[in-house]
Amino acid sequence: MVEQDFLATEFETRVENAQRAMHHEGLDALLFTSEAEMRYFTGFRTLFWQSPTRPWFLVLPLVGKPIAIIPEIGAELMRTTWIDDIRTWSSPAPRDDGISLLVEALQNSNKIGIPMGRESTLRMPLKDFEHLRQRLRNSMLVDCSDLINSQRMTKSTAEIAIISEICTIASASFANAANLFFEGQSLKAVFRSFRMDLLAQGADDVPYLVGGAGQGGYKDVISPPRDTPLRSGDVLMLDTGATRKGYYCDFDRNFAIGHAGEAAKSAYTKLHTAIDAAMRITRPGITCGELYKTIAHKLDGLEQGGAIGRFGHGLGMQLTEAPSIINFDDTVLREGMVLTLEPSIAVCDDKIMVHEENIVVQDGPPLLLSKRAPPELPVL
Amino acid sequence: MVEQDFLATEFETRVENAQRAMHHEGLDALLFTSEAEMRYFTGFRTLFWQSPTRPWFLVLPLVGKPIAIIPEIGAELMRTTWIDDIRTWSSPAPRDDGISLLVEALQNSNKIGIPMGRESTLRMPLKDFEHLRQRLRNSMLVDCSDLINSQRMTKSTAEIAIISEICTIASASFANAANLFFEGQSLKAVFRSFRMDLLAQGADDVPYLVGGAGQGGYKDVISPPRDTPLRSGDVLMLDTGATRKGYYCDFDRNFAIGHAGEAAKSAYTKLHTAIDAAMRITRPGITCGELYKTIAHKLDGLEQGGAIGRFGHGLGMQLTEAPSIINFDDTVLREGMVLTLEPSIAVCDDKIMVHEENIVVQDGPPLLLSKRAPPELPVL
């Protein structure tokens, strides 16, 4: 038996929960084309999704285990999971890249759910999808984004344990900042050194690392590094989505290089206070919109979601997942949701600052997964 | 001026070439939703695509520069590129996540190309796409996969220089194998140590690292590592897609641990010879299908594409790109194409072996970008 990320019971529970929701909505099958859902229901984990060449399909029937309809290259790995029904074809195929197998698996389903809403992607060629739709013209294809997002939002104890592990690893690397970063170092060298430290601390991978540095703040929070050296008075921000067993952490840290200016110190404190306020009200039962408004209020409406558009989001198998901490998201928080709290603020001129922490919603105050940032802007 | 991966002339040429093809096919605009095409025409490079929350759009009109229609969070980074026309909205949005901006940009286009064919993905919610299609019902939406794939297949001198850099880096890490890997080491530790070495040698990132180890060969070529320790007689294979400025290498190496068995040695030699044979005939003018047949012939039809389904593929901004070295791909090789040659073979029982090299097609023998693997299975 090849070592797996989860026990089979984890997947059984996921499937049962989905099938209960399917029954409720009168769905006969769900069809998924994307990595996260494939992994969520099967445990199939590979970086091979980096290759866009082949489509991969998962059919979840109303009763029974999921059916994997996948390129032959994935069969061996899929056989190590809890899945029994694995249907393969030699892909890439000249004409029929899995479509006939899909039709066969779905032809007796009247109502089929496919993610079509917010945060979803169709990871198969549109032409093949049109062809599939034509061949399944007697079935109704409906959106199941809410069904799957709602289920995935609440994490199991086993999932939380893994996310907690990767948050602890990233916290250790951030705690090592004084040994890693220094005035004169190029931002590229900063990134390289931080990536290597994350791996050394136990991260499996670092799929996401962005950041910025500038006098008093930074202009941008999604850029790759440049050759620009760190200067005294810079605020350096690093935001990392490192992974463990395919689960992400997602939080950032700010550091002043040499010395910190007043505007930066004050912005930092304001953001720290906003996270405190958010932590105080985060409980099962409140909505994402309420959480958003609390944070916005603490920031004096200075940058209400600003360029980033929201003050946090769900976290798990993807760097960002539903829900959004934004005024229009009325998702009610439930125990077991893993969230990022991510307020941002204008510092001065065109500079901004962002803080981020990772938490689990639970009965009582939320559990911090990231080691809380210090209350004052640390100077390196 | 913020440092860029390419000069503006590189993007001007890409746009001119695309517009020439558009003119030829009577297309008024192209619409892209995915990372590779956005970066190809704008230079916009960020790991933020890891977040599935927001859609990103690029419109390429028949005349003039591309129009970026993107979430506000990307505006600052987009402004550092050569793009002038940047239209943004605060995303995620409660209802209209960029669709009205898209409609406005496309409403005067009669015939709009969207990638819908092989290797393409629709990176926006299907519901939003249906809505867009409805609002553009007076326009014709057609597949432009061939147009864009055909153009991207041929790399510029500047692109080849970057791919060559990352191939040199990965070659240096593989050359370091004897210092990194040892009997008793867990496969997880092997991966970690190799990732760190790639970063130390100058890779920006290691988005892809897969491999396997087993007595005489391995069963699978896309798996993440397990805790299993390397044993004497194992063949260890690592296949990496490390990146530099967002461009990939993609090749593997095989190593015997302690000693090599006869079946493994013989399979290794056969694969090495197959690559030699492929190199000898790789020239502008031959087709991918012909290249496939040459390799298959050298392998005595032992594993004709096998589970992997093909003997190589294009390489560039994505780990795998068009074309495919497979019997049905009649793409004619052109100067400047960067390819992987990747024959695979059955060793014994259920074990396989794969070799991979990266080359540039040119007038004369192809240029090796990866340092050629030794002709005999190296023993660590």
Task: Please tell me about this protein's structure.
- The structure is a homodimer of 380-residue chains.
- Chain A is of the alpha+beta class.
- Chain A has two domains: 8-152, Creatinase/prolidase N-terminal domain (Creatine Amidinohydrolase, Chain A, domain 1), CATH 3.40.350.10; 157-368, Creatine Amidinohydrolase (Alpha-Beta Complex).
- The first copy, chain A, has helices spanning 8-25, 35-42, 75-79, 99-106, 126-135, 145-153, 157-175, 177-180, 187-201, 262-281, 288-298; strands spanning 29-32, 57-61, 67-71, 85-89, 111-114, 140-143, 205-215, 234-244, 247-248, 251-256, 312-314, 321-324, 338-341, 344-348, 351-354, 357-360, 367-368.
- In chain A, a hairpin with a 6-residue loop joins β16 and β17 (367-368).
- In chain A, α7 packs across α9 (187-201).
- The longest helix of chain A has 20 residues, at 262-281.
- The radius of gyration of chain A is 22 Å and the shape is globular.
- The N and C termini of chain A lie far apart (48 Å).
- At the A-B interface, α3, α5, α9 and β7 of A face α3, α5, α9 and β7 of B.
Topology:
The structure is a homodimer of 380-residue chains.
Chain A: H1 8-25, E1 29-32, H2 35-42, E2 57-61, E3 67-71, H3 75-79, E4 85-89, H4 99-106, E5 111-114, H5 126-135, E6 140-143, H6 145-153, H7 157-175, H8 177-180, H9 187-201, E7 205-215, E8 234-244, E9 247-248, E10 251-256, H10 262-281, H11 288-298, E11 312-314, E12 321-324, E13 338-341, E14 344-348, E15 351-354, E16 357-360, E17 367-368
Parallel strand pairs in A: 1-5, 3-4, 5-6
Antiparallel strand pairs in A: 1-2, 2-3, 7-8, 8-9, 8-10, 11-12, 11-13, 13-16, 14-15, 16-17
Helix pairs in contact in A: 4-5, 7-9, 10-11
